[in-house]
Design goal:
With about 425 residues, this protein is of the alpha/beta class. It contains 16 helices and 12 strands. The chain has 2 domains: about 180 residues, Alpha-Beta Complex (Aspartate Aminotransferase, domain 1); about 240 residues, Type I PLP-dependent aspartate aminotransferase-like (Major domain) (Aspartate Aminotransferase, domain 2, 3-Layer(aba) Sandwich), CATH 3.40.640. The radius of gyration is 22 Å and the shape is globular. It binds pyridoxal-5'-phosphate.
Length: about 425
């Protein structure tokens, strides 16, 4: 008899967290690591939001509360979604979760029977792919094209839709690529979905980076397109917009109250409710006129860092990087570096159990030998990712730290001797 149930081998993980023990190990042994692995704004939670958390604690707002989310917050969310997307949702369609993450896997549990197909962007937030097999559904990656600024063509999506399709994830602005969807792409996508999908196929539109968008562009949501409102789950949260990843507040707005109630039942089963003092502060984040300025300052900082770091990274021999239109990541193509370092050949000659991908070896080598933490392509969806050589680096760090990080990537890209030493020792395989 096995200790663990079989399903534990069907769920994957998020590499941004998994790489943590390696970073600790490197820092214990050598010098400080430049950490560009996490998707976390390097800003403080705006003061007016922090003040409200403290005020709520002093009011003893620290007890169990509505598992669906406080009505005051759900009302603020519904109002905000209606205003920004020209919709007419009501607070009963809204459910609050501990972060943007839980509703991703819950959606698969709620909508998918075994054998149903789930379409999701790849590269994409790893939790879309991670959960699918856990619920006995079938993963169907929608590969984003570097040449189309990491969007997809409507035909590509059309070719993936079958009578078994049950759930389609979209994520704009995207993690890890920073891709932004144009209104015309969303309209074309909607046309295909309306033509080819049954009305009970759900579109999970992950819009958690909705406010982090550059070059004067506007955020567009597929939910605003006529007839898509009834099929779209709008998911977003407070982690990125308000630099509040530890607050654990996210939400989803469902096409029907009936669906929201099913998700509420999962909340009751898993965690009862989300801390009410944080929920009241999240309401303030949405309603206070002060929030607009804080978010604007943060986004302008990300945009100027993007401009600078994009230029510097594109100057490194063997790297080319598209210009992200939103979020706070760069997703450079490192095929040239893999070529220059002979990584593709070296990777193939490793024993099977040590093989991951050339970009993963570069990720680990860069961490152990050059103390720079970034993530490889396979951290964002493994299926169909062979032969694709990319890294994700977060630009949510001070400019000088980012510049040092870019320099370390450049040095790693030229360090053939260091790579040979690393491959001989493979210190990364002996860590937890
Ligand atoms: N969705 C996307 C696209 C993300 O990038 C993230 C976090 O990185 C999440 C959801 C989860 O956010 P949270 O930290 O609020 O759970």
């Amino acid at each position: 008899m096995n200790l663990f149930a079989e399903r534990n081998s069907w769920i994957d993980t998020e590499n941004a967290f998994k790489i943590g023990p390696h970073i600790v190990r490197v820092e214990q042994q050598k010098k400080a690591v430049i950490k560009l692995n996490f998707g976390e704004p390097d800003f403080s939670v705006p003061k007016h939001i922090k003040d409200e958390i403290k005020r709520q604690l002093d009011l003893d707002n620290t007890h169990y509360c509505d598992p669906k989310g406080l009505l005051s917050l759900r009302t603020a969310i519904s109002n905000q979604v209606n205003e920004t997307r020209r919709l007419q949702t009501n607070p009963e369609q809204v459910v609050v979760f501990p972060g943007g993450k839980p509703s991703i896997g819950f959606a698969q549990q709620v909508y998918c029977n075994p054998g149903d197909e789930v379409i999701y962007p790849s590269p994409g937030f790893p939790i879309y792919e991670s959960f699918i097999r856990y619920v006995h559904a079938v993963p169907v990656p929608l590969h984003l094209n570097e040449s189309e600024n990491f969007t997809f063509s409507p035909d590509q999506l059309a070719n993936l839709i079958t009578p078994k399709t049950k759930l389609i994830y979209l994520n704009f602005p995207s993690n890890p690529t920073g891709g932004v969807a144009s209104q015309s792409l969303l309209e074309e996508t909607a046309r295909i979905i309306l033509e080819r999908c049954q009305p009970d196929v759900r579109i999970y539109s992950d819009e958690i980076y909705e406010k982090i968008i550059f070059d004067g562009q506007q955020h567009h949501s597929i939910s605003s397109i006529p007839e898509m409102t009834e099929r779209t789950i709008i998911a977003s949260g407070f982690s990125k917009t308000y630099a509040w990843t530890g607050g654990r507040i996210g939400y989803a707005v469902f096409p029907t109250v009936e669906e929201a109630e099913v998700f509420k039942r999962l909340n009751i089963n898993y965690f009862s409710c989300v801390p009410p003092y944080n929920q009241e502060a999240a309401r303030v984040a949405l309603e206070s006129p002060l929030s607009k300025q804080s978010v604007k300052e943060m986004v302008e900082t990300f945009e100027s860092r993007r401009n600078l770091i994009l230029q510097q990274i594109n100057e490194i021999p063997g790297i080319s990087c598209q210009k992200p239109g939103g979020a706070f990541y760069l997703f450079p193509n490192i095929s040239g570096i893999c070529e220059n370092l002979g990584l593709i050949k070296k990777h193939h000659s490793l024993p099977a159990e040590e093989q991951s991908s050339p970009a993963n070896i570069f990720q680990m080598f860069a961490l152990y030998e050059h103390q720079i933490a970034v993530l490889d392509r396979k951290s964002f969806g493994k299926i169909g990712a062979d032969g694709k050589h990319f890294l994700r680096l977060s630009i949510a760090a001070e400019q000088s730290v980012l510049e040092e990080g870019v320099l370390r990537i450049k040095n790693a890209g030229e360090d053939t001797n260091g790579l040979d030493r690393f491959l001989k020792e493979r210190p990364d395989l002996n860590s937890t």
